[in-house]
Design brief:
The complex is a heterodimer of chains A (243) and B (371). Chain A is of the alpha/beta class and 243 residues long. Chain A has helices spanning 44-52, 74-80, 97-105, 112-126, 141-153, 171-186, 198-201, 222-225, 229-236; strands at residues 4-15, 18-29, 33-37, 59-64, 67-68, 82-84, 159-163, 190-195, 207-212, 215-220. Chain A contains 9 helices and 10 strands. In chain A, the strands form 2 sheets. Chain A has a 6-stranded mixed β-sheet with strand order 6-7-8-3-9-10, sandwiched between helices. In chain A, strands 2-1-4-5 form a 4-stranded antiparallel β-sheet, with helices on one face. Chain A is globular, with a radius of gyration of 18 Å. With 371 residues, chain B is an all-alpha fold. Chain B has a domain at 62-283. Chain B has a two-stranded antiparallel ribbon. In chain B, helix 4 packs antiparallel against helix 9 (242-268) and helix 11 packs across helix 12. Classes of the chains: A alpha/beta (243), B mainly alpha (371). At the A-B interface, helix 2, helix 3, helix 4 and helix 5 of A face helix 1, helix 7, helix 8 and helix 14 of B.
Chain lengths: 243, 371
């Protein structure tokens, strides 16, 4: 089987008295698409931010490509090959679309010219090339989501973390998004995607981890999970189980 | 997905959409896009070169010493504001305490000249390096502060510097220091009556800061700084070390501001704490950039071109600066700009991004209606 890329070991994260993640463990293999799902407040975003390096865990450890990264800063993790998008889009609005992506490309290309070329190639891949010189502020919301992905891809990640990248899209936009995620995986990039809506992720992911109340509730193949009693209960509440 | 492009811009950059055998074409199109970007950069250089030549020829027409004086000050503030713009405009860290770096430049070169006979050319380099070190020392605690808190800290530190200089007798205290007159000399940057050498020095200084900014715009630091300004968290996720980026911008900005201070000391031959470290100076360094267009290549020069002659002329027409009339004029100008052109004067030329954004958004209403 393929090699292990990311390992989260017994990670707990507290915010004051609130335990957002309690003793969470999971692994991500190279080349797979892992879905991180769960109802609101399940701790998905916290876990996501712990992996991306926005803040460190209260206890536990995170290992990426054989290297312990638990206390590394976000830029250092980016250098190792972890890239992310944000749930609330954070484009660099004083710059053009291509310049936004240049910022990411500079991670691996010291020269501005090579970085720009890399950025243009990435825009081609993400279907934004026609908007390369538009100001980032002028993009539509779905285009901004693509820009986030393009920027992250330009850093040459081994692991791409997508935080609700498909949320708030129309069905046709979501289909294009799914298509894009598949294309990215074909390039050998491992993907962890947080998604709230199960219908969107389940057909796309190889494996999913369901979080509820900060703990891992279940994990496995999508087809198994959608029939899992505990998962249905977590999403719909106990009363719906009978129905 | 909207593929509409901006009118008249880089039609060559638009790659064929999913055409068969598009690989080769794509590559060519990226080269075209790079080429058109390079051409735009070359045009900017050409405009700067022409502007420099035009200004260099001005003294042939303008012999009046008073007017030449205004030219020197306008160029100096353009350069100072350009230096401020590196930290405030590109990196987004609004400092209202840049007078401290200006003062350091003025005092270091003057003290070295008066007490050790060191040429101001070396003095200004030493002053610049010293100012950069001070900026790093201040940045270490201050860049942990966000937004307004950072700005307030810069004001407090500059005021502290002012008080220190007022009470430091070796450096002249409140009396200030008079630079002893010698014969006219480029080595000492001293010219008793002739303003012309100062015009050329100030022009060179303004051009230098413009060039530095121009080079930064398409460099690693330039992209990083703008990313830090726009969204620090997103910048970090893309590998930008935010703290280090801010420190680099602060050091560079302080270095060039101090050069301006050394030049000013040589130009007026007399410095005291209020004239080289006062709060009003911090405002005057920041205002041209704000007025002209913060974080833009031409904003500081354009702002200085409007602001400085206006200040000098009101001073001479209404007598002295004590009545604060020039401050009222700044206030009115800032209000007018804020209301009519919040992007600054450069947006009048339709070159800034936001100015281009508006027609684009209008031309694409279906994309808006359908989020």
């Amino acid at each position: 089987m393929s090699a292990r890329l990311l390992e989260v070991r017994n990670v707990t994260r507290r915010f004051g008295g609130l335990v957002a993640n309690a003793d969470v463990s999971l692994v991500v293999d190279e080349g797979e698409i892992l879905g991180l799902i769960g109802p609101n407040g399940a701790g998905k975003s916290t876990l996501f931010n712990l992996i991306a390096g926005l803040y460190p865990p209260s206890s536990g450890s995170i290992v990426f490509a054989g290297e312990e990264i638990t206390r590394l800063s976000a830029p250092a993790r980016c250098a190792l090959g972890i890239a992310r998008t944000f749930q609330v889009v954070r484009s660099f609005d004083s710059m053009s679309v291509v310049e936004n992506v240049v910022v990411g490309a500079l991670m691996r290309h010291a020269g501005a010219r090579e970085a720009r070329l890399k950025a243009l190639e990435t825009l081609e891949l993400t279907g934004l090339i026609g908007r390369a010189n538009a100001p980032a502020v002028a993009l539509t919301p779905p285009e901004k989501r693509r820009l986030e992905i393009a920027r992250a891809l330009a850093t040459h990640p081994k692991l791409l973390l997508l935080d609700e990248a498909l949320a708030g899209l129309t069905p046709s936009e979501a289909r294009e998004g799914v298509e894009l995620v598949r294309r990215i995986r074909e390039r050998g990039i491992t993907i962890v995607m947080v998604e709230h809506v199960m219908e969107v992720v389940m057909p796309l992911v190889d494996r999913a981890v369901v979080l509820d109340l900060g703990k891992v509730l279940a994990q496995g193949l999508p087809a198994e999970l959608v029939r899992d009693e505990r998962v249905i209960e977590a999403y719909l509440g106990a009363r719906h189980r009978a129905a | 997905m909207a593929s509409q492009e901006l009118p008249g811009r880089d039609s060559s950059a638009v790659a064929p959409r999913a055409e068969a055998g598009g690989r080769e074409r794509e590559r060519i199109d990226h080269d075209a896009s790079l080429g058109s970007f390079a051409r735009r950069r070359h045009r900017k250089l050409a405009v700067a070169a022409l502007t420099t030549v035009a200004i260099a020829l001005l003294p042939l027409v303008i012999h009046d010493v008073y007017l030449q004086n205004i030219i020197v000050l306008t160029l100096m503030y353009a350069a100072l504001s350009q230096s401020w713009n590196i930290l405030g405009g590109y990196c987004g860290q609004i400092s209202l305490g840049h007078a401290i770096y200006f003062g350091i430049g003025a005092y270091v070169s003057t003290l070295l000249f008066v007490h050790a006979g060191l040429t101001p050319w070396l003095g200004m380099l030493i002053g610049g390096v010293f100012a950069a070190l001070v900026a790093l020392a201040l940045g270490y605690p201050f860049f942990r502060l966000r937004g307004h808190y950072f700005t307030i800290a810069t004001i407090v530190v500059a005021e502290t510097g002012l008080l220190l200089m007022l009470n430091w007798d070796f450096a002249g205290g409140a009396q200030g220091i008079q630079i002893p007159y010698g014969p006219d000399s480029w080595a000492h940057l001293q010219f008793a009556r002739d303003k012309l050498p100062y015009v050329y020095f100030a022009l060179g200084f303004a051009l230098l800061t413009w060039l530095v900014t121009f080079l930064i715009e398409d460099s690693r630091w330039g992209y990083w700084w703008r990313a830090v300004k726009d969204n620090a968290e997103a910048a970090e996720s893309l590998g930008v070390v935010v703290f280090r980026s801010k420190m680099a911008a602060a050091a560079l900005s302080a270095f060039f501001t101090a050069i301006g201070g050394s030049f000013y000391a040589a130009f007026v031959s007399y410095i005291d704490p209020d004239s080289v470290m006062g709060f009003q100076l911090s405002l005057l360094i920041a205002l041209p950039a704000v007025l002209g267009g913060i974080g833009t290549l031409w904003g500081p020069a354009l702002g200085a071109l409007v602001l400085i002659p206006l200040t000098e002329l009101t001073r001479s027409y209404f007598g002295g600066s004590g009545n604060g009339l020039d401050l009222i004029i700044y206030g009115v100008l800032i209000m007018v700009i804020a209301l009519a052109r919040p992007e600054g004067l450069t947006s009048l030329f339709g070159r800034t991004r936001k100015a281009r954004a508006t027609p684009q958004a209008r031309a694409n209403p279906e994309a808006r209606a359908n989020p």
